[in-house]
Amino acid sequence: MPLSSPRRSALVDQVITQLRNQITSGEWPVGARIPTEPELVELLGVARNTVREAVRALAHNGLLDIRQGSGTYVLATSELAGVMHRRFAGADPRHIAELRSTLESSAARLAAERRTERDLDQLDALLARREEAWRSGDAELFVAADVGLHMAVVTASHNEVLVGLYADLGDLVADWLRADVGPELTPQMHLDHARLIEAIRRGDADTAAAEAAGYPFACRGGGGPQVSPARG
């Protein structure tokens, strides 16, 4: 005998799907506070208990973080990302950097071999956005722009499994980078990515892989030596 009627269960599932779509589409980005329970009730036209069940289900799956007295925040962009975030949140930062280095080096090599003109246009645009974010001095804006550029490099590999895995690790990588950069951008942390993009453009797989492999250790949290702003 079911614990709840099929009708109610189906309604909760529909609300879960709508909320999940808001997250996966980027409408509610990671770190954002979602609408309050009364607001969701009004927006969705369903009962408060239905909204509450849906939010709790997404929190259980790792997409949302319910903070008493503060609200509910987006924690991850997919269930797998949520699991990885919880599983590796306390991992050694150097190990996160090493994983990023391994994945991005392989992706950059493939990108140099498989990139399309559309990929190159996207990489150029995101590289310019990253440099603009750096010049703004806004650390959070720079982290978002840097993560976006690296995601585009991985996407240009045209390996669906690699792209999916990296996307699910994206929130963890962003947290690592945010801690590594700190609240203030300093000149010694700057690392020009133009050589990586140019290597991909030329189809130079070895250089692209080498460039990508070196990036995660450029800042203080990566455990490697600092580099000068002139590199690249």
TrEMBL record:
InterPro entries: GntR_C (IPR011711), TF_FadR/GntR_C (IPR008920), Tscrpt_reg_HTH_GntR (IPR000524), WH-like_DNA-bd_sf (IPR036388), WH_DNA-bd_sf (IPR036390). Gene3D superfamilies: GntR ligand-binding domain-like, Winged helix-like DNA-binding domain superfamily/Winged helix DNA-binding domain. Pfam families: FCD (PF07729), GntR (PF00392). The keyword Transmembrane helix does not apply. Coiled coil: none annotated. It comes from the Bacteria. PROSITE patterns: HTH_GNTR. Keywords: DNA-binding, Transcription, Transcription regulation. Residues 9-77 form the HTH gntR-type domain. PANTHER family: REGULATORY PROTEIN GNTR HTH (PTHR43537:SF47), TRANSCRIPTIONAL REGULATOR, GNTR FAMILY (PTHR43537). This is GntR family transcriptional regulator. It comes from Streptomyces cirratus.
